[in-house]
Write a structure and sequence with these properties.
5 helices; about 75% helix; membrane; globular; mainly alpha
């Protein structure tokens, strides 16, 4: 999980770099949109497979974005990401906790909106 977090953080740093091309930005935007939008290849209500497509497609799209980065930008972004993780070892657990809380809040809000809570 630390490698995924490091790479996602590195991509975030790289996207802020003016040397990053349009292709990398587009792949990152597609990954974000796929993760955020309710439209999926497999509906999330499908047991196991619904979440599996998100767990496979989003990292694949992020990998495409990372491969589209210029090599110097990628190296600098990974170094910044590793440096931040060394200074803030609680970053990964805190990120996971915040993600779980955000998803739980979104699910609760959706249930209230639909009249089930």
């Amino acid at each position: 999980m630390r490698l995924v977090w490091r790479d996602a953080l590195a991509l975030l740093f790289a996207l802020r770099d003016p040397r990053t091309g349009l292709q990398a930005r587009a792949w990152a935007l597609v990954a974000l949109a796929y993760a955020a939008l309710p439209l999926d290849l497999l509906p999330d209500l499908t047991p196991l497979l619904g979440a599996a497509d998100d767990l496979l497609i989003v990292p694949a799209l992020l990998a495409l974005a990372t491969r589209s980065l210029p090599v110097p930008v990628q190296r600098e972004a990974v170094a910044r990401s590793q440096g931040l993780q060394r200074r803030l070892p609680w970053l990964v657990p805190a990120g996971l906790i915040l993600t779980v809380v955000a998803l739980a809040g979104a699910a609760w809000g959706l249930l209230r909106l639909l009249g089930g809570g």
